[in-house]
Design a protein that fits this description.
Structural class: mainly alpha
Shape: globular
Number of helices: 6
Helix content: 55-70%
Number of strands: 0
Order of helices and strands: HHHHHH
Distance between the termini: 19 Å
Oligomer: single chain
């Protein structure tokens, strides 16, 4: 696991808001049934569609907080839910399209958080 991301996830888990997000039983079962590769593929699709554009549609409100898909919950838990949080927490500036490297980083953060959640159960 990337040590910097691991430290970031530890820090975020201690905050009242970010630390309040967890995968529920349905999401855990879904993740185990589909497999982490499918979840990673979904994460790439969701990030490309909802966060990657220069000015995402409904920025700040584009990520559902109560959904069956574990990627949405992971986005909130990791601060990868909107461009404002990406800028504040991950230092990825708003107002420009996300690069491939930035998308890869975001997906890595999301997947590591999900894997940590699965280890707890």
């Amino acid at each position: 696991m990337n040590k910097d991301i691991s430290n970031l996830l530890d820090s975020l888990a201690k905050t009242k808001f970010r630390g309040s997000f967890h995968l529920n039983t349905k999401m855990i079962l879904y993740t185990k049934e589909k497999g982490i590769d499918k979840i990673r593929k979904d994460a790439y699709e969701l990030i490309r569609k909802r966060l990657a554009p220069e000015n995402p549609k409904n920025d700040g409100k584009q990520t559902p907080m109560r959904q069956v898909h574990p990627v949405f919950i992971a986005q909130h838990a990791t601060g990868c839910c909107c461009r404002g949080c990406l800028e504040r927490i991950h230092h990825i500036p708003k107002g420009k399209e996300l690069s491939k490297e930035e998308i890869d980083y975001i997906v890595e953060v999301i997947i590591l958080w999900i894997e940590r959640e699965l280890e707890k159960k």
